[in-house]
Design goal:
single chain; about 250 residues; mainly alpha; Rhopdopsin 7-helix transmembrane proteins; about 80% helix; about 0% strand
Length: about 250
């Protein structure tokens, strides 16, 4: 019963978030983000109402929707990079290439998935491992961009902060749940589902508040100019990536 309430609440908030996005003219400014929300709204609505209308959906389509969510979720990270690094085209281009590479990798797994998963149990195991690995990469990218913003005092408006906070906590809690599930086994599935759905519901609430209306990002004070300064930015950012990646590897080994 509780899961049904959370499910319906999520659909309502998704619809309201999409409505506000259109009404406040936010969709064109954060297109990747709203494509992600729209895909989840459609998936949630179909999977909820189809059985009620007498059209049960096979489990395999649930896994496919999960892969699509992973694929489009990278778009939120890409959206954050695009806005934060807009004053620095070179760095934004590198971040965009990395995000596209990650999206391409997810797309390859979507195509290969039916071939390498002969049964439902194998499909479930493959999906959870893929989800863990790709969310870990997204967590790495989010931590890097936050450290870059803090180090170079790059300002962000309420819209962007809400996007980062909502998606960041959802990724973190999902990774936490996946780690516990790997440790506790199948018996932890119910608890993991509640962790994941609650984290997503919290993200929706954060996004609804932060993206209720458009607030432009503050104009940053230029701190990077010339090839030498850009080389220093790239060098320091690579150092941040290496340091953050080492922390993620240590956590994953726990």
């Amino acid at each position: 019963m509780l899961s049904q309430i959370i499910w319906v609440t999520g659909i309502v908030i998704e619809a309201l978030l999409l409505f506000r996005g259109v009404y406040a003219k936010l969709v064109s400014r954060y297109l990747n983000f709203y494509i992600y929300v729209l895909s989840l709204f459609l998936a949630d609505g179909i999977f909820y109402f189809a059985p009620i209308l007498g059209h049960p959906i096979a489990d395999k389509w649930n896994w496919y929707s999960g892969f699509v969510s992973l694929f489009l979720g990278v778009g939120i990270v890409l959206e954050v990079f695009r806005h934060v690094l807009a004053p620095y085209p070179g760095a934004e281009k590198v971040a965009r290439i990395l995000s596209y590479a990650l999206m391409g990798a997810v797309l390859v797994f979507i195509i290969v998935y039916p071939i390498v998963s002969p049964n439902a149990a194998a499909a479930r195991t493959l999906f959870y491992r893929l989800q863990r690995d790709f969310l870990a990469v997204q967590a790495l990218l989010l931590m890097v961009i936050i450290r870059v913003m803090a180090y170079y005092a790059i300002p962000a408006g309420r819209n962007l902060k809400g996007m980062i906070l909502g998606y960041g906590q959802m990724v973190a809690l999902t990774l936490f749940g996946l780690a516990l599930r790997a440790f506790r086994g199948f018996a932890f599935n119910t608890a993991f589902n509640y962790i994941q759905t609650t984290a997503y519901l919290a993200a929706l609430v954060i996004w609804l508040i932060a993206l209720w209306s458009y607030l432009p990002d503050p104009v940053p004070t230029p701190r990077i100019s010339g090839d030498d300064d850009y080389d220093r930015l790239a060098s320091r950012t690579r150092g941040m990536v290496d340091a953050t990646e080492s922390h993620l590897v240590k956590v994953e080994r726990l």
